[in-house]
Amino acid sequence: MSFRSTIAGWLAEETGLSRDQIETWLEIPPQQEMGDFAFPCFRLAKHLRRSPVQIAEDFVAKAGELDGIDDVRAVSGYLNFYVSRGSYVATTVARVLSVADNLGRQQIGTGQKVVVEYSSPNIAKPFHVGHAFTTILGHALYRLHDWLGYETVRVNHLGDYGTQFGKLIVAWRLWGDEAAVRDNPIGELLRIYVRFHEEAQTNPDLDDQAREAFRLLEAGSPEEQALWQKFRDLSLTSFEAVYKRLGVSFDSYRGESFYSSRIPDVIDLLKKKELLVESDGAQVVMLDEYKLPPCIILKSDGTTIYASRDIAAVLYRWEQYHFAKNIYVVGTPQALHFRQVFAVLDKAGIAAASQCVHVGFGLVKFADRKLSTRSGDVIFLSELLEESVEKTRAIIKENARLRQTDMCDQEIDEVAEKVGLGAVIYTFLKNGRERDIVFSWEEMLDFDGDSAPYVQYTYARARSILRKADPDDLPERMVTAKQLTCLATEDEFALAKLLDGFDKAIQKAAELYEPYLLVRQVTALARAFNKYYNHESILKTDDPALRRARLALLQAVCQAIRVGLDLVGISVVERM
């Protein structure tokens, strides 16, 4: 039984509207005393030609007996529905157990392709903590869309082109060290890149040399091409180590360089549409009607820029995938750039423009420093991950010593890896994506706060109870809702409501490009379970039927936590 469907079906019959439409309008009240489901009758005022208050009162009079609903009340134009506690908990737990690790999996996106562009680090530059946001957020959005049935294409649009490569080529020829680059590729390339900017402050001729080097690269000069390929290969090898550790992978590594040869097609298209205008020697598209500044397509020296390559990328992806959505997981400071690119496409009459979405996110901050590649003051993501794992290992080791557990060093290492990485991932996803992140080890590794360690520990605690249970008390096959109707306490009802909300949380997280909605659902479930654990006896429950039902509830909670964390890239652990 679905209580939401029961309510929606009844209202659909009474109003003549579709069940699906009614379901989208049903709400979960913010306070328990306001009911378990609420329907805002102002939605029907125009359709029924009556006031919301009168509509709500009329419906209460008609309600009669609704399966699983104990009471229906009219309050200020709302219909508030109060469900039967035992029936609701039993139905929800039975449903969650029946779908097992497919909780929340839906087919909303069947037959539709979604391109998710994320990570996209710059070649020959460090993979620093700033790249973690796009990588972690993008991976979560890929997982969410995939879970909802979309055919999802993961694109790593590498920053492997542009004037910075002219600078790097010049720097390599002046100061590059072959032995150093073999030992530490990114470190050596960063060293000479930083030195270039230091030297260029007193020697402006270096910038002219860099522009010429990039011009030759775009023209296909073999020497420049060979150096560029070397920098690209070395960088990808370095990046792959970080991706592997985070469990991130891609379907395409086509970066900016791939689209360079397609720029002439972009120019031809814009010329045919009579959109190109010369401005100070550059070729631009005017976007006054969009209230945007002109979008530069070609610079005065004839070289391309980000916008021209991004337009070429959209045209290529539209041709290859005919996507339903083309999602760019790129920092909020690039919002204007994407508005211009999408506007140029729209002005050119390209249908793909309306399917392109920029998913922006905030900045990554540390209380005591700023990040700058040019100055060389960077925090490598690999070092941050390692530090998180090391700090976690120390905590787990101490806890194991205090509790005198039998965890061996290998198990401690495995747990520390999952919890340490989870702590970093959770930090990026626990709030709305446009909020800046200020790193705090104390908050990240707080086993009692809103953190991955807290949720992972909760899962391990619940799993420990299940391991200690008599096997005869565990439902080897699916339990029926009838066997679970004894679950009717307030804590059990609270857990059931959170379990019941998982499908919606996953769907909303994908629709709004906000994984934090799912992260909060998982965290709230962990908190509700810990409250339940402290209030109710489980293994020592005298009534065998009630004990088995509570263990079934625990299994459902574990499934939800495991699925929820996995969808955002965090692993669970069996014990800590």
Task: Write up what this structure looks like.
With 576 residues, the chain is α/β, with parallel strands linked by helices. The protein has helices spanning 3-15, 19-25, 45-48, 52-63, 85-99, 129-147, 163-175, 178-183, 185-200, 205-218, 222-246, 256-260, 263-272, 306-321, 335-347, 381-403, 409-429, 441-444, 452-468, 490-500, 502-511, 516-535, 544-567; strands at residues 37-40, 69-75, 78-83, 113-117, 151-155, 276-279, 282-285, 295-298, 325-329, 356-359, 364-365, 437-438. The strands form 4 sheets. The protein has a 4-stranded parallel sheet, sandwiched between helices. Strands 1-3-2 form a 3-stranded antiparallel sheet. A hairpin with a 2-residue loop joins strand 2 and strand 3. Helix 10 packs across helix 11, helix 14 (306-321) crosses helix 15 (335-347) and helix 20 packs parallel to helix 23 (544-567). The chain starts with a helix and ends in a 9-residue tail after the last helix. Mean pLDDT is 92; it is low at 371-376.
